Amino acid sequence: MPELLCRTERVEHARNFKTEVRGLMDVDHLIERACIHRNMAHSHIHTILLTLFSELSSRFPRERFDLALFKNAVFSVSDRDSRAPRLHHKLQSYSGTDFFDVNQTWIVTYAQLDGLKQSHMALATLEDATNLGLEMEEARIVKHTKSAAEIARTFGTLLMNDSLRQSVNDAADDDQIRDLLTDSAKSLSQQMTIQINGVPITDDDDDKNYKTSSGFCPYYPFRGLIKDFQRRMANYKSDYLDGIKDRRSISKVISTAIFLIFTILPTSIAYGMLNENNTSGAINVQKVILGQWIGSLFFGFFGGQQLLILSTTAPLSIYIAVIYQVAQTNGWDFFQMYASVGVYAMGILILSSVFQLASLMKFTTRSTEEIFSVFIALALVIKVIMAIVHVYTHGYLGCINNVAGDLCDPAEPLLFIFLLFGTTWLSMTIISFRSSPYLSRWKRDLVSDYALPIAVLVFAFISFFGFSDVKKEQFQIFPRETDAFFVSFFYLPAEAQLPAIGLAIPLAILFFMDQLLVTNTVDNKENKLKKGSAHHWDIFVVAILNIGLSIFGLPWMHGALPSAFLHLKALSDVEDRLHNGYIQTVIVHVRETRLATLIAHTIMIPIYFFLVPYITVFIPTSIFNGVFLFMAFSSLTGNEFWERILLIFTEQRAYPPTHYIRRVPQRIVHQFTIIEFIQLAILVAIGFAQYHYVEMVFPIVIAAFIPFRHFILPLFIRKQYLEAIDGMH
Asked: Which residue ranges does the record assign to the Bicarbonate transporter-like transmembrane domain (predicted)?
């Protein structure tokens, strides 16, 4: 006969280990004699808890462990608990903003048993993510405690730290788990704040800052640079040690370095070919590769945010083309003009870092960053489409017009499309292997880490050995002595100085906006980074770097999407979790290390000197375009703007229960998305305009989106709705 189920829930505040001494006492008293069962193979909550109970009974024979009392205390449906177990008490992490956003990767249950002389704790890590029943899906860590809610609250607070939980899962033995929990508790007891789902919860009594007694922050030039430098120097040693502190970290660093080579090298080659066409070979593939490893090694050692990847970009290629046209039209030396514009622009950028103009970026909201991210992804897709059209035009158009020879080779465009989409499909398939049920978890992670290199090499072999007689597009090789040389920019004629300054101002704005938008994307709180940002310092380092690149005739570079975001993801440990109404891959821990980018660009040195002529033969440009498509698709993961675009074509009853769907009328959500789409269309129209002079206003348009969001948009959409959909972070 059906029965009634009575449930009561309440919010339990996380323990503040700094002000509540009981937390550290609980850990000290219970961890050393805790029963720990690693990688338990059971998948039923009833079996898991009874196994832990049995191990506690065996370990402490003098205690009176009564199984019947235990079942009555732990399970609310005691007579049928083996079939449909339900727990009297459970503790889980809850975001407080989304009803559905409960962290389901761990659970704490507790009970008060009569007859026990002291408190006991048992902990189990599960071998695989396991569905434990209603509201306990995909749990990996289960903890059972005695002494009711307070001890459960202590250890529940510890498990809120995703990084700690990941370390517990990967622990090699029980002693390492004990050390991890003890060290984490001691660390929390010494900190000003605790982290809950990656969000800092501050103790109001200890809220200290740099304000003076009058309540205002002292301002002076270089203040931001000095603060950034001090913050980064405190973590500089760990920037290297974090990449080698355990076997998993070493494996991640190696796989990430290889991943970066297979993403950055194709990007460099593609932009090299674009610049070669725009400048008649003055800036070419070899120059881009040379500048790439020089600039990235420089920033890798001296930059602030070590997860940033520097690269030349499409907007920078546009500026180089404009400078080339101006120089050719007026009879000025291109490299002298190029170097002068670069030096002037970087001077402006240095002043912006000295006077803390990067602080203005605090007014950017999620929408501005996500529009820019979608634009970059769309730009990659457009480049792929243009490449397909180019190959089709040169390889198949002659067949239609009955022209023999090189203009009639239908195999070339067909092979191009096969290699392009094949590379994209295989890389996406392998990277999704992480969520499959095959092999063990660490083997799935290992295979997924090498998804892109595997796909590139597989289709490179297919192309080279299977279709060796089919013509393939290759890039041109230039004499190496022209790759880099000192440019006497001070000989630029006087009448060219004013145009150079005029070109430098929008270029400085482009560097400023792109660099900080990429940095904000990486520093997003959802990525759970711990070492802090260095906006002012990074701008300063990028400016110094590009002065050197300018006077040696090498292409400019700054932080680039999606490479930087993909670098962050490659160094992350992730979990599949119910988040914002979707099963999403959520970052739980990031290894904030410089080693991956340093290793990758160090390997690019011998590639530049010895392998460039062979790359153009072995890996055709079609595979590079497949990499671009993979990068575009991967960068859209977690982008709320892209998700809202898909909502427009989604049946209403299938909408996910995200926080803004429940707080904002559907009409307003779609209205905001359409406005974002119009902004994106403006960026595309300007970024891909036929005239390069129109493309020069690209950074100014991006900057204009910020005041538009704060002053114009609230006239059409209520402020509370805007905050729900597009709050600052």
From this structure: 221-397, 408-727
